[in-house]
């Protein structure tokens, strides 16, 4: 059992680990994309991975390695938001694959 947010993070992390070159990450996850495009990670790192309210940042076990891969490996990683369940063929294909995999469990 897991959450949608954890799976979104894990998917990006696996893409970054499996491909060592520059990447353009296209995701329908505002959770993932906004972290990078709006710089949420900067405050997290500065606050010891605590929110402005002092609570631990959710999914830190995935965020830490993801941030390391995306920000500290010397490659260019661009994050682009795409609307889910829309006209993006790659996003639609990933959605089909995820649903098929979920049905196996």
TrEMBL record:
<comment type="subunit">
    <text>Monomer.</text>
</comment>
<dbReference type="InterPro" id="IPR002156">
    <property type="entry name" value="RNaseH_domain"/>
</dbReference>
<dbReference type="InterPro" id="IPR022892">
    <property type="entry name" value="RNaseHI"/>
</dbReference>
<keyword id="KW-0540">Nuclease</keyword>
<dbReference type="Pfam" id="PF00075">
    <property type="entry name" value="RNase_H"/>
</dbReference>
<dbReference type="InterPro" id="IPR050092">
    <property type="entry name" value="RNase_H"/>
</dbReference>
<keyword id="KW-0460">Magnesium</keyword>
<dbReference type="GO" id="GO:0004523">
    <property type="term" value="F:RNA-DNA hybrid ribonuclease activity"/>
</dbReference>
<dbReference type="GO" id="GO:0046872">
    <property type="term" value="F:metal ion binding"/>
</dbReference>
<dbReference type="InterPro" id="IPR012337">
    <property type="entry name" value="RNaseH-like_sf"/>
</dbReference>
<dbReference type="GO" id="GO:0003676">
    <property type="term" value="F:nucleic acid binding"/>
</dbReference>
<keyword id="KW-0378">Hydrolase</keyword>
<protein>
    <recommendedName>
        <fullName>ribonuclease H</fullName>
        <ecNumber>3.1.26.4</ecNumber>
    </recommendedName>
</protein>
<dbReference type="InterPro" id="IPR036397">
    <property type="entry name" value="RNaseH_sf"/>
</dbReference>
<comment type="similarity">
    <text>Belongs to the RNase H family.</text>
</comment>
<keyword id="KW-0479">Metal-binding</keyword>
<dbReference type="GO" id="GO:0043137">
    <property type="term" value="P:DNA replication, removal of RNA primer"/>
</dbReference>
<keyword id="KW-0255">Endonuclease</keyword>
<feature type="domain" description="RNase H type-1">
    <location>
        <begin position="1"/>
        <end position="103"/>
    </location>
</feature>
